[in-house]
Amino acid sequence: MSVTTIAVIGGTGPQGRGLAYRLARAGHSIVLGSRDASRASAAAVELGHELEIGSVELRRVAGNVTGASNLDAAASAPVVLLAVPYDGHTELVSSLAAALAGKIVISCVNPLGFDKQGPFGLDVPAGSAAEEAASLAGGATVVGAFHHLSAPLLLDQDADLSHEDVLVCGDDREAKELVMGLAADVTGGRGVDAGRLRLARQLEPLTAVLISVNKRYKTRSGVSITGLTQASHERVPA
Amino acid sequence: MSVTTIAVIGGTGPQGRGLAYRLARAGHSIVLGSRDASRASAAAVELGHELEIGSVELRRVAGNVTGASNLDAAASAPVVLLAVPYDGHTELVSSLAAALAGKIVISCVNPLGFDKQGPFGLDVPAGSAAEEAASLAGGATVVGAFHHLSAPLLLDQDADLSHEDVLVCGDDREAKELVMGLAADVTGGRGVDAGRLRLARQLEPLTAVLISVNKRYKTRSGVSITGLTQASHERVPA
C-alpha cells in the first residue's frame, strides 16, 4: 500500500467520518472538509482522539487528520472523496470544479429518497451522482465506490469489514486500481472492479435495497459478490 | 416445503430452463411455456432426461415436467414465473393478463442493453419489468426474484448455489413468503426480503454489474447480502 493524502468532502457526516477513520487507520493523511472550516477542525480533533483509543500499533501507523473548508480540503489533496448527501450535490461539485481538476475524485454519493413505502432511488438527470460529478468537474477522474458500507460499522473500531465487497466503477483503469487499493485499506477485504462509471446508476440506488433489508432484519447489511475466488490483480485486462 | 405447480413462461430460454430444473428437482411440477407448444414439449422431455441423470433420491422426489404454449402454461398453474427477455415483454404480458388474474406471478426479467461499453440497465417506462407486469396484469400479485442466478450454474447439477442470496421484492407479504420458500428450494440457501416491488428497479439492472464482473474476472458471479445472521422467518414484521 502506498500512503497518500485524501480530502473527505462532507467529512463531518457519518459516511465521511467513517471512511476517514478507516483510511487514517490504514496510514493515509486525511483532510476533513465541511462547509464550516471550524466544524471540520473540531471533527478532525475528535477523529484524532478516536484513533488514539486504538492499539499502540494502530497509533503508530495512523495518518494525521486535519480539518478545512470543503474548498481548501479539495485543493490540498490528490485524491478527493465526495461523501455528501445528494441534496446540494450539483452546487457543491460545481463550486469545487476548479480545485478538482487533475485529481482522482471518489464518489460514494447515494441519491435516495424516502416516503411512506421506504427508501427509493432518485431520478438523477446525469444517470448517477458519479456521472454528474464527472460532468461538472470535467478535469477530474471520477470513480464510484464505497456506496454500501454501513457508517456505524465503519466507525466501530472492533467491526471486521473484511467480508464486505467494495464495488468500484470507473472509466480510468489506473484510478480504479488506486481506489480498489483504498477499498482494501478501508475494509481489510477487497475492492471489486464493477465496470464502467455509468454502472454507478446501479450501485448508488442499490443502497435503497440495503436500507430496506436493514429495517426488515434489524441489521447493518452490505454486499458481497459470489463467484470471485481470484484476487483483484488477476482480473482479465479490460 | 409445500409442493406446487409452476408455469415457466419463456421456459425454453436458459434462465427459464435453469430455474425449472432446480424447481423440479425440489419436487414442484413444472409446465414449461413457449410461444411454440411443440418446442416447449421438446424442452420438457429434455429437462426430464436431465432430471433422470441425477441420483435415485433425486429421481424419486422430482416433480414432473410438461410443455405447453405460454398461454396454456399460464392458465394451468397457480404460480407463474416470467423468464423472458425484456424485448417483447409488454406484448407478452398483455396477451397473458387474463390468464394471470388471481395468480402469483414471479418476474426475473432483466431489462438490459449492451453496447461497446458493455451492459447497462434499460430505461423502463413503468420503472421496472416487474412493475410493468403488475400494471399490465392488474389481477395478478407480482413478486420480483431470481434476477441474479447464473443460468449455467442453475443447469449444472453439481453446482452448489446455497451461498447465493435470492433477493425478493413485492408488496404482498404472503406472496413474498411463498417466493422466498421457492428461492430456498432453488438454491438450497435463502431468499432475502428486499422490500417493496418498486425496488425491482434496483434488482433488475444490478445484473448489468454482475455481467460486467463476469467479463472482468472470467467467472459466474452472484450476490450475497452481508450482515444477515437471522433466518428469514425472524424478520421484523413489515
From TrEMBL, chains A, B:
Source taxon at top rank:
Bacteria
Keywords in UniProt for this one? Oxidoreductase
- Per the database record, which ranges form the Pyrroline-5-carboxylate reductase catalytic N-terminal domain? 5-111
Would I find Cytoplasm among this entry's keywords?
no
Pfam family membership, one: F420_oxidored
Please give the PANTHER family that the UniProt record associates with this protein.
DUDULIN-RELATED (PTHR14239), F420-DEPENDENT NADP REDUCTASE (PTHR14239:SF0)
Protein name, UniProt field: NADPH-dependent F420 reductase
Q: Which organism is it from?
A: Dactylosporangium maewongense
